[in-house]
Amino acid sequence: MEDRRNIWIEEYYTSEMCTHICLRVKDYVYRAQSEFQTVDVVDTHDWGRVMFLDSVVMVCDKYEFIYHEMISHPLLFSHPSPKRILIIGGGDGGAAREALKHPGVTVDMVEIDGMVVDVARKYFPGCACSFDNPRLNLVIGDGVEFVKGKKDEYDIIVVDSTDPIGPAVGLFEEDFYRCINAALKPEGFFAFQSESPYYYSDFQKQVIGKLRKIFPLVKPYTATIPMYPGSFWTFTVGSRKFDPFEIRRRMPLADFSLKYYNYEIHEAAFALPEFAKKIFCQEGA
Amino acid sequence: MEDRRNIWIEEYYTSEMCTHICLRVKDYVYRAQSEFQTVDVVDTHDWGRVMFLDSVVMVCDKYEFIYHEMISHPLLFSHPSPKRILIIGGGDGGAAREALKHPGVTVDMVEIDGMVVDVARKYFPGCACSFDNPRLNLVIGDGVEFVKGKKDEYDIIVVDSTDPIGPAVGLFEEDFYRCINAALKPEGFFAFQSESPYYYSDFQKQVIGKLRKIFPLVKPYTATIPMYPGSFWTFTVGSRKFDPFEIRRRMPLADFSLKYYNYEIHEAAFALPEFAKKIFCQEGA
User: Fold this and answer.
1) I want to staple A41 with a disulfide (CB 3.0 to 4.6 A). Which of A18, A30, B10, B279 is the partner?
2) How far is the CA of B83 from the CAs of A43, A94, B107, B153, in angstroms?
3) Are the beta carbons of B271 and A265 separated by less than 8 Å?
């Protein structure tokens, strides 16, 4: 019999709530309130299973590969010899899954909200497939506290967080970036998801300003991620030595099971449209 | 007094109507039925003024620059000496506006629906600003008929059409592509908007197959256009001689008033994510 239920879930794109995406719901799978946020899991017709944190799309089956490949591989193929990786956030497991495709890499992952990890394990097995990998050390805790006092430990640090409101707000502060810098080895890379210039350009200017005080090289790169508002998404790299545009570990990609990343995409991701240059490249960076 | 009207306009992204974008409406500006389609003009809070053709977003103030710059400049900066351009469709005027930024270029523009041109002139002056340019020859008529029998006339032909349903369907046929090929000079480029791989991959495979029978070189390129479903948008080039990836007219861009296109973006646009390569690059193209 035809399913005639007409249930929809919406995500508003701005605080003024004048644009939103509507997804038709097949089934409402899970809803709970953690210590930090509300967690919803919904099966939709077009995007497959979707996780919302505080009513904002975090991941969905249809598009999560883009975000997770692009927050991981540009750094991992640019660093000349990545071994120790720290992921802050990333509770769904997708970023860890991609990082662990690189042989010899070990990952510390620090997620503040244990419920996100539990929900991913149960409802997003495709993302969470690396949680039992012996090269992953999963810590439930505050990433800001975790990096404090660390010295010269990581080759790459990735912040895979929600928007800069709610539990993630401390992950966009200058003090935190100073601790990140100290925790990195001298050739280290730091990267984080830095929102869409169509919705967060003021935030981006502020954050870039903070990073430039700390890292010798600051570079944004982009990907088109249709599950997020505006789709034109940025990641920003703070580098202690190397230019992340350069691919230093060029090896055959066939074993990496990639759906988005390749070496042409790596280089293309660093090209910025004119309007975005004005946001990210002030002061000649 | 605060405007408390709560009026929304929606665009459905698939025929199954399980995903749609909702835009809050400030004012309903215009609605009419032309010989070919319904035309709506709506002022929205986030996207500015929007034109819908048959309930599908055609242009909006916020994002039209991306589409119009990217359907025009990659060809115009790649062709070694573009002089005569034909635009089929493009009734809002945006593609002509961009093409005419190139000194010495003349444009024939053939739009089937005169109402779209009239509406653009009245309600989208930013797009329609070139309609009175003496280097533009505007023809209201059927582009398919217009190119029939033309030989060796154009350096570049651009098809700026709606989706391959309704009045635009003839613009995606093999016979039409043969006429385009004949109408081009031996060094000519043909390009058209070729939809998003997230929604139209079967169509894209078919169209690529048709083009490959006719053009020695067929290449897609991409742009992120948040006003269209999936945002990850493609244009496809059929070339008689040159590779459109190569920039052959590298000149200072300061005079072109560009918000999206630049030479890095030109080259980056030809990089395809892995999943899109599988759609576009079958048979070793």
Assistant:
1) A30
2) 53, 50, 8, 10
3) yes
Contact A262 B274 (CB under 8 A): yes
Give the total number of structural domains in chain A: 2
> Across the beta sheet with B232-239, what order do the strands follow?
B136-140, B106-111, B84-89, B154-160, B184-193, B232-239, B217-224
In whole angstroms, what is the distance from residue A153 CA to residue A84 CA?
7
Question: Which chain B residues touch A45 with a CB distance below 8 Å?
Answer: 16, 18-19
The CATH number linked to B19 is 2.30.140.10
Question: What is B97-162 written as a DSSP string?
Answer: HHHTTSTT-EEEEEES-HHHHHHHHHH-TTTGGGTT-TTEEEEES-HHHHHTT--S-EEEEEEE--
Interface ipTM > 0.90: yes
pLDDT digits (tens, 9 = 90+) for B249-258: 999 999 999 9
Prediction pTM value: 0.95
Residue of chain B with shortest Cα separation from A14: B46
Closest CA–CA distance from residue B142 to any residue of chain A (Å): 34
Among A40, A97, A69, A86, smallest CA distance to A188 is for: A86
Active site annotation includes A92: no
Q: Are residue A50 and residue A191 in the same domain, yes or no?
A: no
- Please give the residue range of the domain that contains residue B175: 64-284
Nearest to A231 among B46, B231, B260 (CB): B231
Measure B15 CA to nearest chain A CA, in Å: 11
Least confident of A122-136, A199-213, A270-284: A270-284
